[in-house]
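Dear support,

We are seeing what looks like truncated structure output for some complexes. This example has two components. We would appreciate it if you could run it in full and send us the complete token output so we can diff it against ours.
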Amino acid sequence: MSTMGHARADFTATGREERLSAFETRYRRELGARRLWTLLYGALFAAALAGSVAVSDFDLADLMAGLPKAWTYIAGTLPRLSPDTLWADLADWYWGLRFWLRLLVETILMGFVGTVLGGIVALLLCFPASRNLVERSGIYFVARRLLEFCRTVPELVFALIFVFAFGLGPFAGVLAIAVHTAGSLGKLFAEVNENVDPRPIEGVRAAGGNWPMLMRLGVVPQALPNYASYFLLRLEINVRGASALGIVGAGGIGQELYVAIRQFEYTDISAIMLLLIATTSIIDVTCETIRHRLIGQDMRAGH
Amino acid sequence: MTSITHGEIARLRRGNPELFHRPIPERLRQWGLWLAFLAAFGYGLWWIDANPMRIVEGLNKLGLLVRLMIPPHPGDGLWDYVHAMLETLGMAFLGTVIAAVVAVPFGFLGAKNVMPNWFFHFTLRRVFDGFRGIDGLVWALIFVSAVGLGPFAGVLAIAIGDIPLLSKLFAEAIENIDRKPVEGVRAAGGSGLQVMRLGVFPQVLPVMMSHVLYFFESNVRSATILGIVGAGGIGLQLSDRIRINNWQAAAFIILMILVTVAAIDFLSRRLRMKIIEAK
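Here is the complete output from our reference environment:
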């Protein structure tokens, strides 16, 4: 409203000098307001920073002292490889390769089975959690909150509880991954469902289909490539997450890494971490390739 | 309305078999893929030793735990939990700020239009990708044993875990800028630094801010669990309460985490929307 007033004032101001000075005042006022906001946000940021520093006993001297320590530690994990005895050194470094590979396979399997189980639950829950597919808002509300709960409780907290209930080992880890995946994939799937073309659904309804048929024949064929793409994305994340679950006793390579770090088996740490990096990179690239192919097919089909 | 006779359908079917049945090789391939998928899934289930007995037994125990959790009650540790939660937020905030500050120069170095040397920028990107394969909790473990127990290790773990990803996102933001303002500043006689400040910076700042806020959100989530390995914050309290079988307090802490995460998500989403609109 006030800018309108100013604009009118500008038009009524006749003289060149007058118009210029009106512009100048307005410019200065806008600049002042902007500076005030920047200052305000800056102050808020500074307050948050000060609070964080106070509450986490962080200080710059600590950081300066801690960084070289961290660096020595990381440098200490690297093995001594000399060119003369390279193979023997490598063999020494990766002395537990067979065992570690077995654990890596376990980690990947945990990620895979957890993602599949979670994906199945997500697929069942995503339809009632889509705004456009349910008429009763009560069902929608319950499904949404359920997904939110599964998604928000950290995976590791589920793992802690499941280790207690189902015993140590990969089974608890898989369940933890599955519950968390159900929550996050369910939400993504529901978003896909909310963007489908309603015409096929109406077609199935007109042909006398009941609700499950509507979902199976009207929604799923449209949404399947997107489901698959999100599934693969989640698989990548879960394999990475599965490597950490071993720390609370839920199976996989994390357990071995935990032991290595706790017992200061320096070279083992770097060996296992490099294996982990290699594995997750391979899985990332594979999943990405498949995802691009899926999306490519989708484009060719003219969706 | 025209109707179609059975004879016509039969003729069409003979004429264009591919419309009625997918070719055998394609179907075989699909069956093969499904079979491989199911085999892998079955093998995985066998490996993790999932049998119905175990599931029933575990669910019984889980039911017992849930009964023990109700009603959630903080006991006499409420202020400890609040303090630990503040510590968690502080860790996430500091970690994100440090990661953002460090990621800015890396982002510029990793951007194709700033660093035309493809080998350099390719290597940098691969290193970023590689480091992403390490989970935040593993970093926390390493920093706890490198710099000792406490939130400081958590801050470092969050910062180190985020730097590669943030650098990559910053680099992409810098690559996607509009050339025209840059050329405008240069045409008006701006120096290299002025081109960065007036041509590049105003374009990338909102994108960077929005990424940083998003990372803060996700870091609050991950900071809640870093305490499990001794890196400070609410996770330590949670794992302790679970270890001593104080399930009511554990449930209370889980609820606290849920509420905090929801509140931070809400605030950060509002701020992000504002930044994007202002852009």
